[in-house]
Design brief:
Main location: cytoplasm
Helix content: 25-40%
Protein name: 4-hydroxy-tetrahydrodipicolinate reductase
CATH class of the largest domain: Alpha Beta
Distance between the termini: 18 Å
Subunit structure: Homotetramer.
CATH topology of the largest domain: Rossmann fold
CATH architecture of the largest domain: 3-Layer(aba) Sandwich
Radius of gyration: 20 Å
Order of helices and strands: EHEHEHEHEHEHEHEEEEHE
Number of strands: 12
Mean pLDDT: 93
Number of domains: 2
Low-confidence stretches: none
Enzyme class: oxidoreductase
Oligomer: single chain
Strand content: 15-25%
Family: Belongs to the DapB family.
Length: 276
């Protein structure tokens, strides 16, 4: 892809915290062109998205009509991309609609997607020969943490995951924590079998039970952004892997990479690690 034919990009959820960062970084990327900003928040509608995020007038108003924006993207010279950071309850329909129009989705809202929905989207993407990237976490640090966790799981039989996020995050557990548990379970090992039978005197006090008996605990507090610990234990020792986010710019290299890579795909790919 050359600068003469930049990638047309739509941001869905443009007024949200992640959406605003994506707007800023796409606008500064020479091989991309921002063509649309979509958001359902009535406080943002009609406002220039550049003014809204503090980078000056971009002559792109925020609208709440996703399909009209997708139609616009199909009229571009090169394949369009939609970056979706919206509500978990909407993301499945958003992805399916984008693929139907031939616009390639890069999806950061993953906590609301079920295994059945992911399978359906994978089949739909294949049938349409339209690339789609579903990324639970765009941070390079999380990819490294997950790789280290997989290595550690060969030597530890007991593990729990603690994920902490800001109190405006609506899904729990996070898509990243679910993905990490799934990656740990790929070996087929059943974890935490040495624990005695437990009784929860208060419901869900031990978190949720994910893949292969891995417990995930979710914390939601103001002041947090995104944090994850994978804690392994064995007799006489505890091994903790932790990743902390101090601001959302850490996700942007992964987002921009995903935008560039999805135009080269004809199927659905799940996870940033698959494109690094």
């Amino acid at each position: 892809m050359t600068i003469e034919s930049p990638i047309p990009v739509i941001v869905n959820g443009a007024g949200g915290k992640m959406g605003r960062e994506v707007i800023k970084h796409v606008s500064l990327s020479k091989d991309m062109v921002l063509i649309g900003a979509v958001d359902k928040n009535s406080n943002y509608l009609g406002k220039d998205i550049g003014e809204l995020v503090g980078i000056g007038n971009l002559e792109i108003p925020v609208i709440n009509d996703l399909e009209s924006m997708l139609i616009t993207a199909t009229q571009e010279k090169v394949p369009g991309v939609i970056v979706d950071f919206t509500h978990p309850s909407n993301v499945y329909n958003n992805i399916r609609t984008a693929i139907a129009y031939g616009v390639r989705p890069v999806v950061g809202t993953t906590g609301g997607l079920t295994e059945e929905q992911l399978k359906d989207l994978e089949e739909f993407s294949d049938k349409a020969s339209t690339g789609c990237l579903v990324i639970p976490n765009f941070s390079i640090g999380i990819v490294l943490l997950q790789k280290a966790a997989i290595q550690a799981s060969k030597y530890f039989d007991d593990v729990e995951i603690v994920e902490s996020h800001h109190n405006h995050k609506v899904d729990a557990p996070s898509g990243t924590a679910i993905q990490t548990a799934q990656m740990l379970s790929n070996s087929g090992k059943i974890y935490n079998t040495s624990s005695k039978e437990e009784t929860e005197t208060t419901g869900s006090s031990r978190g949720c039970l994910a893949s292969n008996n891995v417990n995930i605990h979710s914390i939601r507090l103001p002041g947090l952004i995104a944090h994850q610990e994978v804690i392994f234990g064995s007799e006489g020792q505890v091994y903790t892997l932790r990743h902390d986010t101090s601001n959302r710019t850490c996700y942007m290299p992964g987002v921009l990479l995903a935008i560039r890579q999805v135009t080269q795909l004809k199927h659905l790919v799940y996870g940033l690690d698959k494109i690094l």
